[in-house]
């Protein structure tokens, strides 16, 4: 097992733990990918936990979107998802064990008292944290039946260090931490407790997440260590805190930079899953100068030792260029099926598949492919773009009449034969080939951009191609 596994024996187990309060955004998708690749590289297990304890904000729609996005990226998990909301009794059980063993205590401070405490801290320009006022008091001092929360008794002296697999050694003075709440007054567990209990119970060995959670590691470790003292077999996980993604301008990633849901890249931007997979992999991780990395190569090569310490920058143009590469590599029938959904009206997928080799040479997304393919299924009379219409002046239409006559006499409807006939006609008219091909393209496609004109003639077929040329030539005068 590679050095970054951090285990002497046993299997690596990672988890991705999104909160279903919205879509699967780019940062979350990359975290999911890094966890999945690390476990696959080490022959371990990749698990999924839905942290849905915030019942007001968690929705089934968001859960479905997250699961759909992960499935689209090809991140399959080794067990059914764990729903944190279903594990409340287990979280409470651990909190009660901490309470019984003296690693946690009941705090009867009222909301008003806590606000007074914070106001005094603000006035003194001190960090706002709980001052431990009930840490050493006996619960009997509280009024009978008074509501309380349960707080973890965090270490007060010394310091704690983490050998983070991305950040290196990180040390925090224990005095900077406070006794945070692990059970609310209504008896429900907080995220900090629930995440630790779930990670332990799921056998998670490596916690790989964004570096905005780095402080949480120091708050969560005391739970592991207290429970290890109580029960044993509660080892610290290996931590790897990955720098967040920034926009091209260096600012925190936002919607204007591309911090959108994975479904938006798929549905609205026409990105292929293998392209997004590859791009997310290269956001903060690298292997030399290699840009295009297959799923199999990624599993073989991935390790935490090549995750950078600096924030990576999201570049939509790089994603689109990479997507263009994967479009050119993609199976034509598969592309035709995806593109057909983006074209209005009836679509002949067989014809679309035949057209893919010439359509996909320059396309950077599925919408560009659909736009490029639209001429195949357009109904006569074709709608002309403004530029295409300008090519069909009287001179252009006169040239169409001539080429129509020559093509109608053409028995061999192949690229080579059509090219020879068109070139011969251009010479006959004493024109450069472009002067003839441009009005032909306008008449055949309604646009000024398309695959090669001879490819267009062959794809449309003799009957339809001549009908389109004749329709424009007939209006000359």
TrEMBL record:
Organism lineage string: Bacteria, Pseudomonadati, Pseudomonadota, Alphaproteobacteria, Sphingomonadales
Its job: Catalyzes the attachment of glutamate to tRNA(Glu) in a two-step reaction: glutamate is first activated by ATP to form Glu-AMP and then transferred to the acceptor end of tRNA(Glu).
UniProt catalytic activity: tRNA(Glu) + L-glutamate + ATP = L-glutamyl-tRNA(Glu) + AMP + diphosphate
Gene Ontology biological-process annotations: glutamyl-tRNA aminoacylation
Subunit structure and binding partners: Monomer.
Highest taxon of source: Bacteria
Organism: Altererythrobacter xiamenensis
HAMAP family, alphabetized: Glu_tRNA_synth_type1
Location relative to the cell: Cytoplasm
Name of the protein in question: Glutamate--tRNA ligase
Enzyme Commission number(s) of this protein: 6.1.1.17
């Amino acid at each position: 097992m590679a050095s970054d596994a951090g285990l002497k024996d046993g299997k690596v187990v990672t988890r991705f733990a999104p909160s279903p309060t919205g879509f699967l955004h780019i940062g979350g998708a990359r975290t999911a990918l890094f966890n999945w690749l690390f476990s696959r590289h080490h022959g371990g297990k990749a698990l999924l936990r839905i942290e849905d304890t915030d019942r007001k904000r968690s929705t089934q729609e968001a859960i479905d979107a997250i699961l759909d996005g992960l499935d689209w990226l090809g991140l399959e998990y080794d067990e059914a998802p764990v729903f944190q909301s279903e594990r409340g009794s287990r979280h409470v059980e651990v909190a009660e064990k901490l309470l019984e063993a003296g690693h946690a205590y009941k705090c009867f401070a009222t909301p008003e008292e806590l606000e007074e405490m914070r106001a005094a801290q603000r006035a003194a320009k001190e960090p706002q944290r709980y001052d431990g006022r009930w840490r050493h008091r006996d619960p009997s001092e509280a009024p009978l039946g008074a509501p309380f929360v349960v707080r973890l008794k965090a270490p007060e002296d010394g310091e704690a260090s983490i050998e983070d697999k991305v950040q290196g050694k990180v040390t925090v003075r224990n005095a900077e931490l406070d006794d945070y709440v692990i059970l609310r007054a209504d008896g429900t567990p907080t995220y900090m407790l629930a995440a630790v209990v779930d990670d332990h119970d799921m056998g998670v060995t490596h916690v790989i997440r964004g570096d905005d959670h780095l402080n949480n590691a120091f708050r969560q470790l005391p739970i592991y260590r207290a429970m290890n003292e109580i029960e044993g077999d509660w080892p610290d996980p290996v931590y790897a805190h990955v720098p967040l993604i920034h926009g091209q301008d260096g600012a925190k990633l936002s919607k204007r930079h591309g911090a959108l849901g994975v479904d938006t890249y798929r549905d609205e931007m026409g990105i292929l899953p293998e392209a997004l997979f590859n791009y997310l992999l290269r956001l903060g991780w690298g292997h030399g100068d290699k840009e295009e990395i297959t799923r199999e190569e990624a599993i073989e090569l991935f390790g935490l030792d090549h995750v950078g310490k600096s924030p990576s920058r999201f570049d939509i143009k790089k994603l689109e260029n990479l997507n263009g590469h994967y479009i050119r590599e993609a199976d034509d029938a598969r592309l035709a099926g995806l593109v057909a959904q983006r074209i209005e009206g009836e679509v002949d997928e067989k014809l679309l598949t035949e057209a893919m080799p010439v359509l996909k040479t320059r396309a950077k997304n599925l919408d560009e492919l659909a736009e490029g393919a639209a001429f195949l299924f357009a109904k006569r009379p074709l709608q002309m773009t403004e530029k295409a219409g300008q090519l069909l002046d009287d001179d252009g239409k006169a040239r169409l009449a001539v080429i129509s006559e020559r093509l109608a006499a053409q028995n061999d409807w192949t690229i080579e034969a059509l090219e020879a006939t068109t070139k011969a006609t251009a010479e006959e008219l004493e024109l450069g080939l472009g002067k003839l091909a441009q009005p032909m393209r306008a008449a055949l496609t309604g646009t000024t951009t398309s695959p090669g004109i001879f490819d267009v003639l062959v794809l449309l077929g003799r009957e339809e191609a001549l009908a389109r040329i004749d329709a424009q030539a007939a209006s000359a005068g």
